[in-house]
Amino acid sequence: MANGSTSIVDFEPSRENGLQIICSNSSKKQFKFDHVFRPGSDQEAVEFEETRLEMSFAQ
Questions:
Q1: Which backbone phi and psi does 21 adopt, to 5 degrees?
Q2: Which residues have a Cβ under 8 Å from the Cβ of 5 and sit 6 or more positions away?
Q3: Cys bridge to 1: 5, 8, 13, 27, which one at CB 3.0-4.6 A?
Q4: DSSP per-residue letters across 11-51
Q5: What's the pLDDT tens digit per position in 34-47?
């Protein structure tokens, strides 16, 4: 990462709807969501998922 920074978020492909936060003491906290957008996701992917979610509530 730029300027000597490190990422505290770990995206594992096997965990499609989850992510890990790496804490300062090296422990890891797991979180699960309905959907997780990866760092490379573009605005079109976000809007597509938002529309799909809205349609599921409308049914």
A1: -105, 125
A2: none
A3: 5
A4: --TT-TTEEEEE-TTS-EEEEE-S----TT--HHHHHHHHH
A5: 888 887 889 999 99
Number of CB atoms found within 10 A of residue 4's CB: 5
Residues 18 and 31: beta-carbon distance below 8 Å: yes
Q: Which two tokens stand for residue 28?
A: 């890891």
Assigned token pair, 42? 């573009």
44-54 pLDDT, tens digit per residue, is 999 999 998 89
DSSP state for residue 10 in the 8-state scheme: E
Strands 28-32 and 9-10: unpaired
Q: What is the pTM of this model?
A: 0.52
